[in-house]
């Protein structure tokens, strides 16, 4: 895909679109980390700080249209595994996040992460992009309550007759029509249109709060204003987290964010055409340094690891091609440090539409995979399906690496293997084992 030309207006609209697609993290991250005993309001403040810091650095330093914020998945590992499972205090877990950031930084300074990206076979890169697209789409359907739990089949459609489902489908088709007609800011207009449709729900058909439809739900807040809570800043137990028993936690933080970040950069580059002449993601070294510093910063201010957000594809599809997109999105996070209850104005059923549509755009690289060659097709297929099926970028790409390497070995083509990829495959096995 050839990058589209850009303008200041386009970049700002793209930044707004990206922000609307990922602002949910301001509420979701505190909701998850508060389960680890951390104050909700303090995590919210930390989430905004990480999002602003990481996105501004990505835009101003790396000059990429990619938002950086606390990552989904790793926050669940932080709360439910590191703290509630392994028994770390949240201060020690924050210290582990800090040290994983230090490791990222060293890998980035010595350009090890760049070598890792270049060692990834092109077919796996294409598969990662498609897998991320399906993952984004799945998240969108879930957030819209279109796809729900089903005891018999694990997942299923909620109800075609439900007003939320009908609102989501109406917004999806409306936004799709705007995109086909190439209306500037189509994603924004689609989200606003769906928000307007969603408001009657709960006033005519039941409880709006069940679907996050305009009912402020943030705890300990009155009205629409709330002062920032900086009580978690500097609370990381940096030395305590270095105990030998905690090293596996630091490793998992490191591995997960390492490959989540790599997967995101590769996937976005493949889907958008934002590449350097050698085919690697645009401004990769500076982007990886930004990713690293965002994680280090997250540990210091009181949040789980920061990472590049796959939802940045929303702004890229809107035409965002420069750092101004990331700067715009980053600055939009800032007011919600003070006006966080306003987040409830945009319901999840509206913001989910952007995720589903962007997911469809990101499967385009599938056409570049040689599906007639089983040695290329099987690892690609495993990568594509396991990213959404396991709800993990890291698991999906790990199986892609492992299967690619094993198939080369058992077919007598070990000479074609990149040594770095072999090391990655071994580490992937270790990651899956623990």
UniProtKB/TrEMBL annotation:
The keyword Cell division does not apply. It is found in: Endomembrane system. Its main location: membrane. The chain crosses the membrane at residues 12-32, 38-60, 67-87, 93-111, 123-144, 164-180, 187-205, 211-232, 244-268, 288-310, 322-339, 345-366, 378-404, 416-433. It is a multi-pass membrane protein. It comes from the Bacteria. Keywords: Membrane, Transmembrane, Transmembrane helix, Transport. PANTHER family: XANTHINE/URACIL PERMEASE C887.17-RELATED, XANTHINE_URACIL PERMEASE C887.17-RELATED. Belongs to the nucleobase:cation symporter-2 (NCS2) (TC 2.A.40) family. Azg-like subfamily. This is NCS2 family permease.
């Amino acid at each position: 895909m050839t990058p589209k030309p850009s303008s200041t207006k386009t970049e700002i609209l793209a930044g707004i679109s990206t922000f609307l697609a990922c602002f949910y993290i301001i509420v979701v991250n505190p909701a998850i980390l508060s389960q680890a005993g951390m104050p909700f309001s303090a995590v919210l403040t930390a989430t905004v700080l990480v999002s602003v810091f990481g996105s501004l650095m990505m835009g101003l330093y790396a000059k990429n249209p990619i938002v950086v914020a606390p990552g989904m998945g790793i926050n669940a590992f932080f709360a439910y595994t590191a703290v509630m499972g392994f028994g770390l205090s949240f201060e020690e877990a924050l210290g582990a996040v800090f040290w994983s950031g230090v490791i990222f930084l060293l890998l980035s300074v010595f350009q090890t992460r760049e070598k890792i990206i270049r060692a990834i076979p092109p077919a796996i890169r294409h598969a990662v992009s498609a897998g991320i697209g399906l993952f984004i789409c799945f998240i969108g359907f879930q957030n819209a309550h279109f796809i729900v739990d089903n005891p018999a089949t694990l997942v299923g459609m909620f109800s075609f007759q439900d007003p939320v489902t009908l609102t989501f489908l109406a917004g999806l088709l409306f936004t799709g029509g705007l995109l086909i007609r190439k209306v500037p800011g189509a994603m924004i207009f689609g989200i606003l249109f769906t928000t307007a449709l969603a408001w009657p729900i709960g006033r005519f058909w039941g409880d709006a709060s069940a679907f996050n439809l305009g009912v402020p739900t943030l705890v300990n807040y009155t009205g629409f204003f709330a002062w920032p809570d900086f009580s978690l800043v500097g609370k990381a137990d940096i030395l305590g987290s270095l105990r030998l028993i905690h090293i596996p936690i630091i490793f998992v933080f490191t591995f997960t964010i390492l490959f989540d970040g790599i997967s995101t950069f590769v996937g976005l580059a493949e889907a958008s055409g934002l590449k350097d002449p050698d085919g690697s993601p645009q401004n990769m070294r500076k982007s990886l340094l930004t990713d690293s510093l965002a994680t280090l910063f997250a540990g210091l201010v009181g949040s789980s690891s920061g990472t590049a957000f796959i939802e940045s594809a929303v702004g890229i599809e809107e035409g965002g091609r420069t750092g101004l997109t990331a700067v715009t999105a980053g600055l939009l996070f800032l007011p919600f440090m003070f006006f966080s209850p306003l987040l409830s104005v945009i319901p999840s059923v509206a913001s989910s539409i952007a995720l589903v549509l962007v997911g469809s755009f990101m499967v385009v690289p599938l056409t570049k995979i040689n599906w007639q060659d089983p040695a290329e097709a099987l690892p690609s297929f495993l990568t594509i399906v396991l990213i959404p099926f396991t709800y993990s970028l890291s698991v999906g790409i790990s199986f892609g690496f492992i299967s690619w390497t094993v198939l080369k070995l058992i077919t007598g083509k070990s000479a074609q293997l990149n040594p770095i990829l072999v090391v990655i495959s071994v580490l992937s096995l270790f990651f899956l084992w623990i």
